[in-house]
Structures are given as C-alpha cells and as structure tokens.
Model the fold of this input.
Amino acid sequence: MKKGVLEMCILAIISKEEVYTSDIIERMKEVELIVVEGTLYPMLSRLKSAGYLEYQWRESSAGPPRKYYKMTEKGNDFLRELEKSWSQLVGSVNDIVLKKSKS
Amino acid sequence: MKKGVLEMCILAIISKEEVYTSDIIERMKEVELIVVEGTLYPMLSRLKSAGYLEYQWRESSAGPPRKYYKMTEKGNDFLRELEKSWSQLVGSVNDIVLKKSKS
DNA sequence: TAAGGTACTTTGTAATGCAAGGTTCTATAT
DNA sequence: ATATAGAACCTTGCATTACAAAGTACCTTA
Done:
C-alpha cells in the first residue's frame, strides 16, 4: 500500500544537489528521519541499476573517495510519480483519520 | 523508517464504528486504498492479541456469523500514538520534498 | 441435501529496512 | 616504515509487512 516513501526522500534529496551517502543520512537527520547505511547502500545500487541515478567518484580531502550521486532524466520522472502517489496517500489517509464517527 | 500506516487506518476505521472485515475493506476502497483479506485477517489477529482490539460474534441475516471489532482503551491510546508519528512523518517528508534546491 | 456464496484462516512469497560485520583506502601517530 | 584509526563502501542474514492463493467452515436456498 505505501510503497517507496524512503525511496522518494532519497531521490528528492539527490535532485536538489549532488551528494554521497553520508550527506543523505545527514539531510534526513535534519528533519528527524533516521536512515542507516545498511538501508542506503543497497537502495542506491538498486536505483542506479534501474537507471534513476548515476554517480561519479570524487576525492575527499580527508579519507577515501566518495560516490556522488545525481539524478537521470528517468529518475526525475520517477520522482514525480512517487510524489504524486505520496500526496494521494496522504490525502486518503487523512480522509480515513479525520472522518467523523457515526454517533 | 516508518511502519504502521495501514494499521493506523484500520484502527481509525474501527474507532468510528464497530465493523467486520468486509466493512473495513469497503471503507478503505471509498478513499481509494486497496487492501485485501490476506492482509487484513492476520493484522486483525495481531492487533487483537496485542490488546488493541476486541471482537464479538454477530449473526448475519444471510451467511455465517461475523467478527465485529471494536477498540479497547489501550487501542485508542495506540491509535493516538500512530496518528502522532504519522503527522510527524508527513511533516518531515514534506520538508525534504519541498526544500529548495541549492542553485 | 447439494450448490453457492459469505466469512474466516493459513501458507508461501516478495519486498523493505535494519543490525552487524567485513573490506578498502587515506591520513596520522609512533 | 608501520601500525592505528577512521571514513567510505559493500554484503549477509533476519524480522516485518503485505499480498496471492488456496483452504475450511457455516448458512441459505433451490
């Protein structure tokens, strides 16, 4: 029923700026959403294989190189889809929750 | 990241009126949320074992008897919890999605 | 008393997200 | 030079969630 909320968040973050994994975790934490590496790495690989993302290696000033992700055209389309079904879900759930009881 | 949206919907429906499974499916369909028996029966059993629901057998005018569910006190508390974390989730996701890109 | 529909239940499976552990690479302290 | 620490990446195994599909029980009607 509720497919792809986390996926949508990740894609939304990447659509704003090129980021690597730790950036994503940080952006999520900024709005009190906790997500961990073990979730993120497989998901990013999946999204990349699906053609929604592409990445580029970049060196870091302190530490090993990082994979910086950015959206593809297809990824942007997919993000718009996800956003649409997300707002539909929110609407439906609000209908259920806010409906007056039969009294 | 976030669990229990469907659970919250089910509990919200039951909190409005005493219903049996087919009623729930119908209420959900009214707001374009599709849920099926195979999802619902195990979930209702779980919620009942957890002490959030109780049920009562009632005869039907045409067919076998039905399990009518209603909330317990504990169930109402739990529902309020779920609603709170649901609106937090909606808020957080909106923050992510609506945030301006760095440009 | 057989047939069909309604209601409840169980089983197997796919997808999701997490914990935990592992590998590689770089910088720094010894 | 070498060991240590830490950053970044990746993998494995597990619990949970939701669904499809098949199965069981009951009730009404022909």
Q: What stands out?
A: Strands of chain A lie at 53-58, 66-71. The first helix of chain A runs from residue 5 to 16.
